[in-house]
Amino acid sequence: MDVIESIDNLQVQDPPGEDFCSADLDWVKLRSAERCDDVALIPYDRVDAFIIGECSNVECPTRFHIERGRKRPKGSLKEYKNDEYLEYRLYWCSFGPENYGEGGGTLPSRRYRLNTRNRAARPQSMRGCTCNFVVKRLYARPSLVLLIYNERRHVNKAGFVCHGPLDKDAIGPGAKKIPYVCSEIQQQTMSMIYLGIPEENVLEKHIEGIQRYCGSDPKVKTLASQYVQKLGMIIKRSTHELDLDDEASIRLWAERNKKSIFFYRDTSENEPLILGIQTEWQLQQMIRFGHRNIIAADSTFGIKRLKYPLCTLLVFDSREHALPVAWIITRSIAKPDVAIWMKSLLDRVRSVNSGWKASGFLIDDAAAQIEPIRETFSCPVLFSLWRVRRSWLRHIVKKCTNIEVQREIFKRLGQIVYGIWGGMDLAVALEELLLDFVDQTSFMQYFRDSWLPKIEMWLELMKTLPLASQEASGAIEAYHVKLKTKLYDDSHLGSLQRVDWLVHKLTTELHSSYWLDCYADESDLFQNVKEDYIASTSRYRALQIPDASVSLDENDQLFAKVLSQKDSSLSKLVWNPGSEFAHCDCEWSLQGNLCKHVIKVNMICGNMPRFRSSLSFQSLKTILMDIWKKPMDDSVSLDLSTAWTFQILDQVQNLVEFNDFNSIGLVVNNMPLKWAAKQVRTSPRRQSQQPPLPGTSENSATNKSGKRKRDCVSLK
């Protein structure tokens, strides 16, 4: 926008059409000693057309009233400047400037404020809008008007849209007649709109939800239709850019959404941004599924493509699907920074449930800070191999064209991981790998640059920490793939370097998707959504494959064949069966994912003695053997070590039995009986020495306490 210091050379604009608005004018900055305003010059007889056009703003329909006005008679000034006024009028949006809702409840929004001369008539329409402009009829040129726009946006002092379709707090005219819409119905409607479900289907489900509270009423359908249309328009026109500056936009979002933030630290010269997001629904899921259960972290999403990496904390629901319960946006992995947001998150959870406790914390990055996790959550830390496996497989498929070479490299890398408990010489194993596949220059260059400097650290952590199961790794990977699909859409690639866009996508589309998935699973209202949600993990899809569809190579045990359930003439080959580093030729696996064929084959191989155990079981076995180490002498230390070992083995055995049986009654019947001793009085019961009152029988006196008890119950 051009900056001028005088209006002498300002061009007069007269847009065509009956009405016009500020968008039809070319504005320039007029600099003065005090301020710099947007100005434009129009004919005096087009002022009414401009005001009508501004009132017809689609995003913020309103009316403008004259807040202040002054007028001079012609010839009253002997000396004057080129911008002196003959007539001066300050037009203000009729939803301001006062805000009668400060400190109170949400005020209903109206399209325009009636009776603008008497503000006491409609005080509820004053919402603190700061939109205003000045119409100055020039003293030197009375046929022209200088428009000065002080604030073009319809926002309040905090910078938030305060009325109109874009106002999330507005409930529209006639609010008293609108049927009750609880937060559950509103979230359901919003989720369906965010997911792109057709409006007629959204309206049908919305009316069904309202009728549960209001009954059947013809007026409900009309009002519900208006509500759905308005909510859809708000969502369609909503934007992540609350300000052109990304940091300022995040500040505005954080100010408005304090209930969805558990920790926020703005960017400064010495401290990076930390934004911890957790909605009310996510908090309830963390309390519900995270208590006495595993918390997992997808810790380094978008480290190369996003402005700030995203860390997601996950819990496993009743179907063992990974649910996001907190998002942390920061590039800092320093111990003090990690500790401060973890403590804030735990404090928020325990403010609702003081007894909440996690049984374990699952990490997927060897560079993650383990001490803050142990100090804050006071629980064991586990490690998941899903990120290592996915990264290796994706680059092998991408950089090696020969499928036989692909599966052989992947198998050798798996042998290196399995060898951490067998006394393997890591340097020798890596040297042999580099020499045997020296012709695969593209992958080997990637491996040297990305993994060779840090592979020893990763393998040492795998050896030190318990390893997570394949089911947990698959659930985390399923969330990661869904997150990647939502965020890395081609239409949004230009917004990846804005934090406000990332926050908007997480709290709208992704949050709505998981909310609707869980709601459909528990309410049976959306069968298609429920079926897709249940089948979203590879383990569930693997369980649908019959054992008879899997055949193993009896001679060399090099591969397994899995028949297709849709077409029995088709099959998939799984090489290196029984290993987490098995290689399948299906499309899903070639994208680096853990496919259903690999999981199914490994489930069958796990019950066969000729195949080695899974990495998670070998890790558990190593930990148990370390606990059960024989001391130097036959002392009480040996007894204590034995007791610890058998206690853990008993818990594992009970868990295995519980998962194997279809009925919990069979598990209960196999448990040992526990006799409870009947409590006996240590002294004889005292007899009441007080005689009964006159006119009462012994029975009535005896039942006196019982009657009093019934009276108390009736009073309740």
UniProtKB/TrEMBL annotation:
* Source organism per UniProt: Salvia divinorum (Maria pastora)
- Which residues does the UniProt record annotate as the domain SWIM-type? 569-606
**GO MF:** zinc ion binding
Coiled-coil segments: none
What keywords tag this UniProt record?
Metal-binding, Zinc, Zinc-finger
Name of the protein in question: SWIM-type domain-containing protein
Highest taxon above the source species? Eukaryota
Which PANTHER family does this one have?
A: OS09G0309100 PROTEIN (PTHR33977:SF2), ZINC ION BINDING PROTEIN (PTHR33977)
Region feature Disordered, mapped onto this chain: 678-716
